[in-house]
Amino acid sequence: MEERKEDDDSVGELVVRKPSRKGISYSQPLNRDAVIACASRRQALRKQSLDEDDHSPRPSSIPGDDHPLPSSSSIASSRRTFRHQHSSSLEEFCSPPRTAPIESVSDILGGSFGNHFSLDHHRFGSSSDGDCDLTLERAMSEFGGAPNTVPEFMGSGGGVGIFRVPARAAMHPSRPPPLEVRPHALRETQAGSFLRSIACAGSLLWAGQESGLRVWNLDAVFEDWEPGVMVRRGDEKSAPFNESCRASPTLCLEVDAGNGLIWSGHKDGKIRSWKMELPVNVSSVSDEFGSASVAPASGRCGGAPPFREGLAWQAHYRSPVLSMVITSYGEIWSGSEGGVIKVWSWDAIKKALSLTAEERHVAALLIERSYIDLRSKFTVNGVCTLPNVDIKYMASDNCRSKVWTAGTFIFSLWDSRTRDLLKVYGTDGQVETRFDLPSTQDPYVEDDTKAKSALSSKKDKSQGSVSFFQRSRNALMGAADAVRRVAVKGTFGEDHRRTEALAVSMDGMVWTGCTNGSVVQWDGSGNRLQEFQHHSSCVQSICTYGPRVWVGHVSGKVQVMDLDGNLLGEWIAHSSAVIKMAVGGSYIYTLAHHGGIRGWNIRSPGPLDGFLRTELANRKLSYTKLENIKILVGTWNVGQGKASHDSLISWLGSSASDVGLVVVGLQEVEMGAGFLAMAAAKETVGLEGSANGQWWLSAIGKTLDEGSSFQRVGSRQLAGLLIAAWARKTLRPYIGDVDAAAVPCGFGRAIGNKGAVGLRMRVYDRTICFASCHFAAHLEAVSRRNADFGHVYRNLSFSRPTTGVQGASAGATSVQLHRGVNAMGSQIDDGKPDLSEADMVVFLGDFNYRLHSITYDEARDMVSQRCFDWLRDKDQLRAEMKAGKVFQGMREGQIKFPPTYKFEKHLPGLAGYDSSEKKRIPAWCDRILYRDSRSISVAECSSECPVVASISLYEACMDVTDSDHKPVKCKFCVEISHPDESIRRQEYGQIIASNDKIKSFLEESLGVPETIVSTNDIILQNQDNFILRIANKCDKYKAVFKIICEGQSSTVDENSSEFSTRCSFGFPMWLEVNFILVLVSVPDTIAEGLSNDVTPNMIIKIQPAVGIIKPGQSAEVSIHHGEFFTLEEFVDGISQDTRDKEVVLLVIVTGTGSTESRSHRVFLRHCFSFRFDGADKKIPSRRLQSIHLQGSDGKDTSSSSDVASDLSDRRGP
Q1: Extended beta strands in 621-707, E state
Q2: Is residue 331 classed as helix, strand or coil in its secondary structure?
Q3: Are 806 and 711 in contact (CB under 8 A)?
Q4: 8 Å CB contact between 945 and 935
Q5: Where is the composition biased (Acidic residues) (predicted)?
């Protein structure tokens, strides 16, 4: 008791002597001599219990108890001396996070006196451990830090370059605040429901998934799920949505606003229609959509039953519908494999849609027989002018009434009115002149081949068995070599000019994206104009709206360009590839490869982003959650052996009772030249694993009670390296997106005897990586070990899902990404390693760093006396970390266990160290290091520092004798901060609705330029032309216009007519609309979308008219009745061309910075014989039915103030 009291008094002295020292703060150094004096007393008290024989060397100079406190000048002098000697290193120790306030030095040191892990005999027995610059952080580390934590040592070199801690914040400072429609769901929860495509229709956001469709009502996007609603796992934080009945995987979507339908193309080759009006009860489903023989995809979502398909037919047999488009004349074109393009005319679709639900099977048969196969149309004598490539992309050029179809390297340009092929050309713009032969083989050639095969087989039978085995061996070796060559070519030699995206802007320009990140601009005639390279990552999607072009990259970045290709802004939209984009309301929505959907303000980047970012950051406490978990990490070089059950219990079982995640890394699971060569060959074709590896996985699983308590979430094996992770069942729902990686370092960086295997996973929406390593051996190979770490850190790319027990349920989506892209979407060659982007990284394994400048006998003596402080000064890894040469900025718990290498197998105790002729010096080869989100040593868990870890246990299992290495384990206490996306989305909505500054900005930016349409009534006779003028009276903003056909009718007599709307408000085939530019006030300027050699009076056929009018200019639209006859136009022997034709045109005008619109209605009639009496003839009221155009505020904008009042007497009631 007296001894204990003396210790307490000495600590108290440091606190009471206020005149001799300043107060303690995080930035102020402690008085070194005073702390050392206290430590020396404590070491003297501990001496008898740890080293009764006293064979250890005493420190050369330790200040006595009565040593006077030095002056501030002497402290500064010694501090300068220390910094001169160790100028390249940071502070050696850094403490775990400490949240409690520090009031005295006794608070700092108190945890050390009761620390049962403090086994060091001479803490200050070396010059390096007695550094003169002793800050508060180091004192906390040296003397135990926070209660129940292990002191930590931190390497130098962190915080710069690829070793910089990734920046985190409640709101990303360099991107606009997103609207989280569907947060990133764990991949393991999305089996069978991965999203592949999105499309916007009014206030509805549609998404195609592997089991059908789902739809969000954007008017309710800020709401949460109603209580008691059953929600699919992984979608709990999503905005409420409805799902369809189960259907084949959806590959593409098209919006048909004219008929209120969504058309979807599916993997089973079918095209299906879905009504935009969602049913609200079960009876409405049956009445509107008819019966269906398919089961619901996932029960009720959002309180409504699954909605069912309408019209459906088999568009392609034994091949999927890869792409689909609705042309400017209301026809549906679909593309499939092998260059097949089919056209479905509006007349056939109209007849099928007019049938009742009971007649839908008849409608499907009728429409299936009505298609036009364009490939067959252009095949003559077995030779086709179309390339035999998969039609992955289709786009309708509504400016020029053309259709673009594209494969990987080939484009085809079509006339959507006549369905004529205009041009076939490559990605370089050169016209293709080759012809593709039919895929079916000539029967005579096939018979000849069979005959030759039969003769060769008879000849082979006559040869001996030795020749057979020789040929078999050669065949196997040749096949393996071919597979390796194909794998290498596919990874490194793939053409970077592949087309990955296609879109048409409103000025008539066509934009394509390539795998090298470039965006190519084409004119409407298929001429290659310009190429823009703003990013090196592969382009995955392109979307256009008004004067802007959005480009989504595989790295997750979104770029915004103007129509001239100038970059307006860019930001990281997702942590995965942006595979689809769609514009709806005031947002552009992006779909990521992992299934997340975010909405971005259509004016971003802009002033609104700063307002929203500030307001959301101020409310971060309302949507931030904190979680605490414990992680047990173990490493063991098993020396090609197997462990007993007791050894596994001692290593893992005894410490796993209170942890949620267990990660184990093994080295030398299996070795040998033959095994290593076979493992290397298997890696080239994506195979892994071995019998020993499976035994270890099974044995560890039994130790952890796998199935009852734990569940394996992933594993990866590379030759003799193995890593695996098990999660407790209660934590398993919050762990996912488990990806694996491997990097060989042996024999020219090609063989896995040395190297690393890794696992990456999301835990509570934060990324944690584990890397199990085995570096170069031998005492002198320090530089090689450092190089191995650098190679692993830079090249460990998580490129595929793990092969864990649950790997099958986490199957990857079928959306194809370009080679060289990892599962999270970032490219391997993007310049930043995957480990740099993780919130926490843990390195474990046999690093093979040895003890230097020490003999075998000296090391044995120090170990027997437990002089671990003295031995740590001889540790190569510690020295290299101090110098910033390896594991830069990473931390390790203070080592308080004997060296773990090298031992004789099955010899217990310290007597088991190597006693052979080599007498390898004992060393701490087996280590566990980590880095969390802290950029400084002491930091609280927050949005800016989302993952904070501390070590509660770091020890070796010295009683295990199954290998020449001892297993090591480390237990982490991890605190994780993550946002609740559902709450943050609600906060987003409240800010939009309540913030006066944001509301004022939105009102100012939602203006529509003033425009005037020259007339509201057009009468054509025979093949007359009529000029419709659209003038932009605004002198500041551009006007975007689009002319659609709201409805059409044909009449035989004065008393009967039929009014109908084609798909997507398409024009009738007999109507031709041409766009002419007329300059009003700026004579030297031309309209956007025209080439520089166009004169103001030149007619450019853009059918129907879509374009952008600059301020003070006007556009002229030429409306012409053209000759177009088809078989469908003869009904009951009467040519439909003899009938009077009437259409209602809508001129829709929007601004370039908003989705608000105004519509101008124009009535057009063509008379076969001039018997139209303008005074007496009235247009039936049903012809005036129109779609209600809505802006972002939901107000009806379908009426126009510019429509002349003198037409009121000619409209129906």
Answers
A1: 624-637, 661-667
A2: coil
A3: yes
A4: yes
A5: 1-11
* DSSP secondary structure letter of residue 453: H
Q: Is the pTM of this model over 0.85?
A: no
Please report which confidence band the pLDDT of residue 748 belongs to, taking 50, 70 and 90 as the band edges. Answer: confident
Per-residue confidence (pLDDT) for residue 687, from 0 to 100 = 80
pLDDT at 376: 83
Rounded distance between C-alpha atoms, residue 1096 and residue 1080, angstroms: 11
**Which phi and psi (to 5°) does residue 1138 adopt?**
-80, -5
Residue 1065: the pLDDT is 65
Matching residue, tokens 């590839």 = 577
Query: Rounded distance, CA 900 to CA 958, Å?
Result: 8
Structure tokens at 928: 């566990």
Buried b (16+ CB within 10 A) or exposed e, 641-668: eebeeebbbbbbbebbeebbbbbbbbbb
Contacts of 302 (CB under 8 A, 6+ apart): 225, 226, 229, 240, 241, 242
Asked if 1068 and 329 touch (Cβ cutoff 8 Å), the reply is yes
Sequence-separated (6 or more) residues with CB below 8 Å from residue 994: none
Let me know if 1058 is exposed, middle or buried by CB neighbors in 10 A (0-12, 13-18, 19+): exposed
Q: Torsion angle, CA of 405/407/410/414, rounded to 10 degrees? A: -10
Write out 366-392 in H/E/C secondary structure.
HHHCCCEEHHHHCEECCEECCCCCCCC
Residue type, 310: G
Q: Measured between alpha carbons, how far is 1011 from 1032 in angstroms, rounded to an integer?
A: 5
The vertex-877 CA angle with 874 and 879, nearest 5°, equals 60
| Consecutive H or E run containing 474 | helix 465-492
**Contacts with 259 (C-beta within 8 Å, 6 or more apart), sequence order:** 353, 1061, 1063
Give the Cα separation of 921 and 919 in Å (integer).
Answer: 6
Q: CB within 8 A of 886, min separation 6: which ones?
A: 155, 785, 786, 789, 790, 877, 880
Structure confidence at residue 671 (pLDDT): 85
Residue pointed to by tokens 């799920």: 225
DSSP string, 187-242: GGG-TT--EEEEEEETTEEEEEETTEEEEEEGGGTT--PPTT----TT-TTSPPEE
CA 551 distance to own-chain centroid: 15
365 SS3 class:
helix
Please confirm whether the linkage preceding 1104 is cis (ω < 30° from 0).
yes
Say how many residues make up the chain.
1213
Contact 529, 420 (CB under 8 A): no
SS3 at position 571: strand
Q: Categorize the per-residue pLDDT at 39 as very low, low, confident or very high, splitting at 50, 70 and 90.
A: very low
- 3-state SS, 707-772, equals CCCEEEEEEEEECCEEEEEEEECCCHHHEEEEEEEEEEEHHHHCEEEEEEEEEEEEECCEEEEEEE
Would strands 766-774 and 800-801 be described as parallel, antiparallel, or unpaired?
unpaired
What are the counts of helices (DSSP H) followed by strands (DSSP E) for the chain?
23, 56
Look at strands 1140-1151 and 204-209 and give their pairing: unpaired
Provide long-range contacts, Cβ within 8 A and 24+ apart, for 364-373: 364/311, 364/312, 364/313, 364/314, 365/313, 367/311, 367/313, 368/313, 368/314, 368/315, 370/344, 370/345, 371/315, 371/342, 371/343, 371/344, 372/342, 372/343, 372/345, 372/419, 373/340, 373/341, 373/342
Per-residue DSSP letter, 819: T
Distance between CA atoms of residues 346 and 335, nearest Å: 17
